[in-house]
Amino acid sequence: MKDKDMKKSYSLFIPCDEANHVCDKSQYNEASLLEKIKLSIHLMYCKACQKYTKNNTKLTKILKDKNVSYMKDNEVTDLEKQFQEQLKEFSDKN
Amino acid sequence: MSTNTNTMAEHQLDPNSWIRNYSDYLFNYTISRVDDREIAKDLVQETFFAGLRSMKNFEGKASERTWLVSILKRKIIDHYRKINSNKGKAEVRMSYNSSEESEGDWLEERVADPYASNAESDIENNELGLAIHKCLSTLPEKQAKIFKMKTIDNFDTETICNEFDITSSNLWVIIHRARTSMAACMEKNWF
User: Model pTM greater than 0.80?
Assistant: First the structure.
């Protein structure tokens, strides 16, 4: 498991920034078991990260439950273009 | 009803801002009900066009968004009717409601008001859906794009890194910032 973006820590105790990073990764199921264990240990004593983890998990759940979807840039551009044509046609008529 | 009443009304229509303000919300509303991107796009477009054509009927009693959603709802129902008649009035189980109790219900019953039993939570859910899109639109453009690709489209880290030419640690910093802003923005809607 190579993880270049964070310094490898051999201790089970990790600093807050690393805890948050693991928390972010675990939202996408990309955290390893060891990382998750380290996060759990960190969360036992760190109030700030507990709050972050709680909100982060909630955000993931809401986005998943609501099945959020969005229009891609080119789709919005197409829509905008066609709508502007209609709008022009419409205001010409009136 | 004369058009003069419009100027007196509480709510005004501004078609120029429709796409920017409502397309994502309406699209999301539609896709959760029809489950097909292309159809959803068409229905949203038709809604905007129909809105344009019936602007003179707008009484200003409801907000612009509510009014557009009511047009969209009719478009969706029309769409259901169309596919239903194509199937020779076959029994159709709606994909947007997977709970078992609705099994065997007839299409017409479901379409009339699929959430009638839980109108309260439907309102809440719509507001939550709107809040999500509002919050997403407050993110800086690149951050929003990357966050959506990662979180909503579920692209893997490597694909996004290649697309935007960034390192994976860049990506996680961006994701972290986006999630922090989203959480702060959504916080008041959670409770």
Answer: no
Whether residues A62 and B152 touch (CB distance < 8 A) is answered with no
Within 8 A of B190 by CB-CB distance, chain A residues are: 58, 62
SS3 percent helix, strand, coil of chain A, rounded to 5, is 70, 0, 30
What is each CA distance from A83 to A78, A92, B20, B77, in whole angstroms?
Answer: 8, 14, 11, 22
B interface toward A at CB cutoff 8 Å? 15-16, 18-19, 23-24, 27-28, 31-32, 41, 44-45, 48-49, 52-53, 125, 128-129, 132-133, 136, 148, 150-152, 154, 157, 167-169, 172, 175-176, 179-180, 182-183, 186-187, 190
- Residue range B111-156, pLDDT digits in tens: 444 444 444 455 556 677 778 888 888 899 899 999 999 998 889 8
* Distance of alpha carbon A2 from alpha carbon A92, whole angstroms: 62
Contact A71 B187 (CB under 8 A): no
